[in-house]
Design brief:
The complex is a heterodimer of chains A (about 350) and B (about 300). Chain A has helices at about 20-25, 60-65, 90-95, 110-120, 125-140, 155-165, 185-200, 215-220, 235-240, 260-265, 300, 320-330, and strands at about 1-15, 30-45, 50, 75-80, 80-85, 95-100, 175, 205-210, 220-225, 230-235, 250-255, 270-280, 285-290, 310-315. Chain A has about 350 residues and is an alpha/beta fold. Chain A has 2 domains: about 1-240, P-loop containing nucleotide triphosphate hydrolases (Rossmann fold, 3-Layer(aba) Sandwich); about 250-320, Alpha-Beta Plaits. In chain A, a hairpin with a 3-residue loop joins strand 12 and strand 13 (about 285-290). The radius of gyration of chain A is 24 Å and the shape is globular. Chain A starts with a strand and ends in a 14-residue tail after the last helix. Chain B has about 300 residues and is mainly α. Chain B has one domain (about 15-290). Chain B contains 12 helices and no strands. Chain B has helices at about 15-40, 45-70, 75-80, 85-110, 110-120, 120-125, 135-160, 170-195, 200-215, 225-235, 235-250, 260-290. The longest helix of chain B is centred in the C-terminal third of the chain and has 32 residues, at about 260-290. Classes of the chains: A alpha/beta (about 350), B mainly alpha (about 300). The interface of A and B includes residues 67 and 202 of A.
């Protein structure tokens, strides 16, 4: 359904200039940033596929290329069998898109008018358009507010309307760019179950981008983690997590003291990598990957660096997608720089 | 799951070209319909459209009355310069035209920027089969408002300042239609260029005001300019349009009174439309390459 081969996209980015007067009177200097660098993806029909990565990883760039909103600099992309550069109209007919979320619908129109507008533009008119609008309003749970102006909707309702608008022409492929950003937990949960249902009952192929690891784990049949425009791993969530090994993750909680637990622990040979450190008021929890599978927590509790600490708990943990991400990229998903300001 | 196609239930024999043409016009009408729904939510804007232009015209007329009204000292020199005996008509006709053009430039010229600001531009682009239907649809919607503008302004002008009209109806209708086509053509061209220019509003406002209000000689004869500036003024289609409108609405003359100017405006209009559509394709492709399509 979606085939991406050696995809490349570069942007020019204005370089920061310290001299204020030069920023005002002259053109900025530019540097080239590789947003997507040789990406390969293959998404099957009816699959729920997530592209996972931090801000600036290249997710949105990839999605925009697939939606014909950006032209690639190299490689090829085919959506529903059509090339995204040469057959743009055919690609657009076959995809439903939700980008920019709640801002992609017209706030000065009612929910119904928005859905009618998009259905008309997709070639649905008259009775069939009206019945489809009612059907979609029901699907996205907006039936009771469908005649209200969108400006009076909550953010979650606007998001659901945007997704409804992308479904109006029964596209075989749905492309959603971070649709749960800004939603409250209930709204996000409702949206996730709606998407899961669409995928399983109506056979819609969904390409979903997010930087919420748990969300991707819960929804995806398969996923790919991308980092700085490159794919670092691909597979089902279970396969991706299993890549770290079943018994290699430990979580150690110690009482806070004057000494830093992270530094000595990271020098310990048994510990391969510190994945996450969470400092609380009273305790510090370190999540780490070990070099060899840990059969017993005794192996960890006996470590030299921990002798001077008051150990609250040590337990083996199941690897998460975030562990995989940190392990493969060396950085935390929240620490990676935001390249969304690319020109 | 099968996607709906944008093609309509036409006989199988209908050519792809015909299907595309029907899709194009139905999409344009859809965009027009919902644009009117959106416009109608801004009632203050509508009120401004109905009264605003007259408020801009009135001070010029009152100033004109002070200086060149009946028995005023400057009457002779004014009539010599303008070659018109009715100073009110001389001012009012192009001023209505300037305001009309300005509203088109403001709305159509900033069309893409408005959609970008609302955040709907990219969504619209992945929905429409033909990008330029956004222009045509918004134009159709805007024409309705233009009609309200024209009727209300002309009514107010007659009520307050009573110009003396001597209309050559056929010629006047042709000139007004040409004016509307020219101004929309120029607005399309500008709108396409504005995909590239980030600070579009200022550029658009300054340019339209400088061109329409000063260079095109809306309120004064361009003979007061030095020779080189007159040459520039004569290259602007609106200079000829204003003159043609004065001739056909105030003097009862036909198009032949300024035939050269008429032909020039027709050619300029055709050029502007072609330029607008070509630039839209070029600039959209450039924006897709640069990644600046959704910037706002």
């Amino acid at each position: 359904m979606i085939e991406v081969k050696s995809l490349k996209k570069r942007f020019r980015r204005a370089m920061p200039d310290s001299a204020k007067w030069r920023r005002i009177v002259s053109r900025p200097k530019y540097e080239t940033v590789e947003a997507v660098s040789g990406l390969d993806l293959e998404i099957e029909k009816g699959e729920f596929f997530s592209l996972l990565g931090p801000n600036g990883a290249g997710k949105t760039t990839t999605v925009r290329i697939l939606c014909t909103l950006l032209l690639p600099d190299g490689g090829s992309c085919r959506v529903a069998g059509y090339d995204v550069v040469d057959d743009q109209r055919a690609v657009r007919r076959n995809i439903g898109v939700s980008i920019r979320g709640e801002r992609s619908v017209y706030w000065k129109l009612t929910g119904r008018q928005n859905l009618e507008y998009f259905s008309n533009l997709y070639g649905l008119r008259g009775k069939s358009a009206r019945s489809r609008v009612c059907e979609i309003a029901e699907t996205v749970g907006l039936s009771d507010r469908i005649d209200d102006y969108v400006e009076h909707y909550s953010m979650g309702m606007k998001q659901r309307l945007a997704i409804g608008a992308s479904l109006i022409h029964r596209p075989p492929i749905l492309v959603l760019d971070e649709p749960t950003i800004g939603l409250d937990p209930n709204g996000a949960r409702a949206l996730r179950s709606l998407l899961k249902e669409l995928c399983s009952t109506e056979g819609v192929t969904i390409l979903y981008t997010t930087h919420y690891m748990q969300e991707a784990h819960e929804l995806s049949d398969r996923l790919a983690i991308i980092h700085r425009g490159k794919k670092v791993i691909e597979g089902s969530p279970a396969e991706v997590c299993a890549s770290l090994g079943d018994e290699n993750i430990v979580e150690i909680t110690v009482s806070n003291s004057d000494d830093d637990v992270e530094q000595p622990l990271s020098n310990e040979r048994v510990i391969d990598k510190i994945l996450h450190v969470e400092r609380g008021l009273l305790t510090t929890t370190v999540r780490a990957r070990t070099v060899v599978p840990v059969r017993s927590v005794a192996l960890i509790s006996g470590l030299e660096p921990l002798r001077n600490f008051d150990i609250q708990s040590i337990h083996l943990a199941q690897p998460s997608l975030e562990d995989v991400f940190v392990s493969l990229t060396g950085s935390n998903i929240t620490e990676v720089g935001d390249a969304s300001s690319l020109e | 799951m099968q996607a709906h196609s944008s093609s309509y239930k036409l006989p199988e024999t209908a050519s792809a070209w015909l299907r595309d043409a029907i899709t194009y016009w139905l999409d344009s009408l859809t965009i027009a319909k919902y644009s009117i729904f959106i416009f109608s939510r801004y009632r203050s804007w509508l009120l401004n459209l109905m009264i605003g232009p007259f408020l801009m015209i009135a001070p010029f007329v009152f100033l004109g009355d002070t200086l060149v009204g009946e028995g005023k000292p400057l009457t002779g020199s004014y009539f010599t310069g303008t070659e018109f005996t009715d100073y009110i008509g001389f001012l009012v006709v192009p001023l209505i035209a300037v305001n009309l053009s300005n509203t088109v430039f403001t709305w159509i010229g900033g069309l893409i920027r408005q959609e970008q600001l609302m955040g709907t531009f990219e969504r619209a682009l992945v929905t429409t089969q033909f990008t330029s239907t956004m222009f045509i649809g918004k134009t159709i919607a805007h024409l309705l408002y233009l009609a309200i503008f024209a009727v209300s302004t002309v009514a107010l002008v007659f009520l307050w300042v009573s110009p003396e009209f001597d209309v050559n109806l056929t010629a006047a209708v042709i000139v007004i239609i040409l004016h509307v086509l020219c101004v929309y053509g120029m607005a399309f061209a500008m709108s396409s260029l504005l995909i590239r220019v980030t600070d579009s509003w200022t550029v658009q406002t300054v340019m339209t005001r400088a061109v329409l209000s000063i260079l095109a000689g809306a309120t004064f004869p361009i003979v007061i300019f030095p020779g080189w500036l007159q040459a520039i003024a004569k290259a602007i289609p609106f200079t000829w349009i204003f003159e043609l409108e004065r001739q056909t609405l105030l003097q009862g003359n036909g198009i032949d009174a300024e035939l050269g100017g008429f032909i020039y405006v027709v050619l300029a209009t055709i050029f502007m439309w072609i330029f607008g559509f070509v630039m839209l394709r070029v600039e959209l492709a450039n924006a897709k390459r640069r990644g600046s399509l959704g910037n706002f």
